[in-house]
Q: What sequence folds into this?
């Protein structure tokens, strides 16, 4: 509570005390019994106390202020009526005696925010104020003989006055009925959060309305029994009102404990359950979460569709969620929740944590996906480049060398048997050298990109590898069937690298290659009976293989204990 | 001998055409792709087609497919497939047809025109020619358990030449031994490898290749 508010409240409390003292003075001085006076003043005091408490706890709600005002007016009215000497003061006092009834109507209709929104509700409240003001004219003060004159009084003894009195009574009854109906609608339309606060308010307000209605019905001649006890009921029902309103205002506080549960649940739950968890903590099943996007969409729902926040004066409202001064989203909720800003703040903070967490999580996933796809693209681009170079070698250098080889041959033929033997030898040597070059080029090209992999698929390419291997290679290959080129290439290079290592470094005498389709995965396994001890060293062929396999979302496992051979298994996801 | 050449590499094609002309072949047509090859063969009825395996549009195995088509439609036309790289399965595919008269050689073999011309004549005559590199690759795979290990060095030499598509007569000349001896070697080889004796040359080449190509049995059982 701010210091200013505190000062104001202390001042108002002091004012209330002064009013009580002033009102009670004549009775004390005259030595009259204090009980009826105290009983009357207690209502006003209770209103002031409850009003100030509600005001302090719920500064955003006007209910507390209205209640305080009602209490003060109640006390002031007693002061004016009991101590007023002039008719004017007395008449003003009479107006004020009735005013708290209009305040109560106002409070109940506007509960819990204290603000009145729809036209119908406004009409109900205005009619309450009018009825009170006009009602003063018909206030029956005949039994108070010492009292000054009611300046506004209209004699109800005359025919016209009588009719006016009856009309006013009927209007008042209609006003009470509208009041009761308004509260019923509030309940019906209210979210659990609203209803929770209305629970103590409704019955009290209705009871007071019913008792008031009964008085008017009796005045209209409806035969209702002993009016005396009703006055007692009326007294207690009006006494219950400040208590009930304060209880209603404070009820939302009880939900505070749920925030702790909320934080715990958010920690345990996955993102999708955030709304449910928040709704539970706020006791408002209609809660929606708007996710803030830093793009033209602005606020979005969980599905990513653009969302509009409700206007500020509607029955639903939005509370911003911020983290470190950055907007991360908003809670769209029942307006009644504004009555408990502390609860709302706590839930927003917890939700903010969760949203921030979700956002970071999504961001990390997106980055990861980006990295994965870019890795896959790099491998694919590398493969495409290798294929292009192989094709260029084939169409260019290899063909030219073959042509050259033909030309050399023809030169040798032209030289014939009679030619310079040294030249013949020279040409022959050149041809041999050229054949070496062609062989090396062929191996280089095949190493760059094996054409059979593109032409016939993985199984044929692995068979070809096995055939070229210097050691016997046993094959157990999955049923042939083409796979995406990147997957075939990865699997091929796993086998190729493993067989090369087995032959070059492992002194293996035998190797086994297995390929298997397991669900949506291709497993490629190469094992040899060599010396083992292979490891993933930076820059090694195995590292390159790992990159290649992982770029496809797969995994490469190397088992190579010294003396126990080497086993290489690649798990590559595929559809 | 009338020959059709199909190769998308113009320089090689022209060089090869001249080389063949120089060596007594009659090159009746030169093509740069495989599309029109079959119709050209139907029209010109050559004795032999020399085709590069890799040609437009996809630059994969167009030549091989064309070769198989030609053998299917014109069994008597010999087809020699040339390639920059060798795959045993393509040799086996070529030889698996009913008729002989197919060859599969590395492209650079053309420079050794004597051997190349021999292979061409053999193929045109219904025999077969398999690149020595394929045969040696298959034979070099050392396996103590392979029945090939039980062959004598001479028998292995005979097996290699036989798998290249050479006739007994040619093997005899190549090894400077007499044809009868070659026959008995061949019989011994087939017995040791557990193969049925095949009368037609290309059949026995196929039998030898597929035997050698068969995956190794698992030594661990």
A:
């Amino acid at each position: 509570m701010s210091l200013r508010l505190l000062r104001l409240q202390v001042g108002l409390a002091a004012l209330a005390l002064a009013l009580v003292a002033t009102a009670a003075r004549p009775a004390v001085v005259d030595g009259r019994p204090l009980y009826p006076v105290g009983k009357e003043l207690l209502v006003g005091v209770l209103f002031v106390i409850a009003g100030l408490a509600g005001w302090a706890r719920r500064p955003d709600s006007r209910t507390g202020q209205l209640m305080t005002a009602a209490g003060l007016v109640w006390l002031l009215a007693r002061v004016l009526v009991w101590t007023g000497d002039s008719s004017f003061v007395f008449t003003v006092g009479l107006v004020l005696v009735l005013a708290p009834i209009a305040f109560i109507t106002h409070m109940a209709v506007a509960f819990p925010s204290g603000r009145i929104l729809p036209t119908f509700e406004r009409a109900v409240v205005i009619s309450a104020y009018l009825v009170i003001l006009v009602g003063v004219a018909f206030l029956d003060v005949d039994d108070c003989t010492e009292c000054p004159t009611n300046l506004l009084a209209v004699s109800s003894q005359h025919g016209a006055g009588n009719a006016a009195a009856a009309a006013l009574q009927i209007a008042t009854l209609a006003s009470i009925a509208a009041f009761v109906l308004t509260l019923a609608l509030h309940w019906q339309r209210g979210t659990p959060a609203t209803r929770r606060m209305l629970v103590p308010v409704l019955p009290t307000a209705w009871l007071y309305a019913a008792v008031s209605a009964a008085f008017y019905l009796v005045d209209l001649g409806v035969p209702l029994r002993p009016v005396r006890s009703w006055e007692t009921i009326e007294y207690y029902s009006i006494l219950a009102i400040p208590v009930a309103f304060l209880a209603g205002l404070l009820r939302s506080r009880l939900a505070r404990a749920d925030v702790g549960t909320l934080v715990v649940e958010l920690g345990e739950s996955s993102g999708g359950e955030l709304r449910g968890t928040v709704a539970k903590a706020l006791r408002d099943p209609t809660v929606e979460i708007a996710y803030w996007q830093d793009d033209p969409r602005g606020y979005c729902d969980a599905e990513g569709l653009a969302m509009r926040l409700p206007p500020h004066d509607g029955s639903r409202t939005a509370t911003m969620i911020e983290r470190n001064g950055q907007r991360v989203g908003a809670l769209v909720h029942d307006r009644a929740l504004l009555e408990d800003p502390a609860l709302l703040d706590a839930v927003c903070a917890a939700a903010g944590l969760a949203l921030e967490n979700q956002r970071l999580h999504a961001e990390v996933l997106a980055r990861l996906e980006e990295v994965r796809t870019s890795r896959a693209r790099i491998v694919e681009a590398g493969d495409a480049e290798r294929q292009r170079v192989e094709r260029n070698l084939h169409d260019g250098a290899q063909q030219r060398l073959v042509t050259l080889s033909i030309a050399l041959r023809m030169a040798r033929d032209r030289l014939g048997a009679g030619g310079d033997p040294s030249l013949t030898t020279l040409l022959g040597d050149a041809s041999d050298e050229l054949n070496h070059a062609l062989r090396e080029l062929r191996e280089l090209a095949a190493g760059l990109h094996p054409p059979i992999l593109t032409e016939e698929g993985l199984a044929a390419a692995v068979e070809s590898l096995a055939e070229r291997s210097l050691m016997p290679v046993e094959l157990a290959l999955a049923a042939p069937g083409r796979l995406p080129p990147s997957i075939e290439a990865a699997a091929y290079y796993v086998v190729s690298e493993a067989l090369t290592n087995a032959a070059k470094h492992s002194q293996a005498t035998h190797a086994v290659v297995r390929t298997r389709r397991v669900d949506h995965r291709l497993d490629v396994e190469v094992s040899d009976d060599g010396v083992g001890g292979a490891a993933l060293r930076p820059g090694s062929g195995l590292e390159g293989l790992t990159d290649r396999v992982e770029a496809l979302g797969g995994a490469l496992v190397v088992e190579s204990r010294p003396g126990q051979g080497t086993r290489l298994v690649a798990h590559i996801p595929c559809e | 001998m009338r020959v059709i050449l199909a190769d998308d590499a113009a320089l090689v094609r022209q060089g090869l055409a001249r080389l063949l002309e120089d060596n007594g072949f009659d090159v009746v047509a030169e093509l740069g792709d495989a599309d029109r090859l079959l119709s050209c063969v139907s029209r010109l009825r050559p004795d032999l087609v020399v085709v590069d395996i890799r040609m437009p549009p996809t630059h994969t195995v167009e030549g091989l497919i064309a070769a198989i088509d030609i053998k299917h439609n014109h069994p008597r036309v010999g087809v020699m497939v040339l390639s920059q790289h060798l795959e045993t399965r393509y040799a086996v595919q070529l030889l698996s047809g009913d008729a002989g008269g197919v060859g599969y050689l590395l492209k650079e073999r053309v420079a050794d025109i004597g051997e190349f011309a021999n292979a061409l004549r053999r193929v045109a005559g219904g025999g077969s020619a398999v690149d020595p590199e394929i045969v040696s690759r298959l034979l070099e795979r050392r396996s103590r358990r392979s029945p090939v290990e039980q062959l004598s060095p001479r028998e292995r030499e005979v097996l290699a030449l036989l798998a290249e598509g050479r006739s007994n007569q040619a093997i005899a000349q190549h090894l400077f031994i007499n044809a009868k001896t070659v026959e008995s070697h061949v019989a011994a080889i087939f017995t040791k490898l557990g193969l049925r004796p095949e009368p037609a040359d290309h059949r026995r080449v196929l039998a030898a290749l597929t035997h050698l190509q068969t995956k190794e049995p698992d030594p661990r059982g």
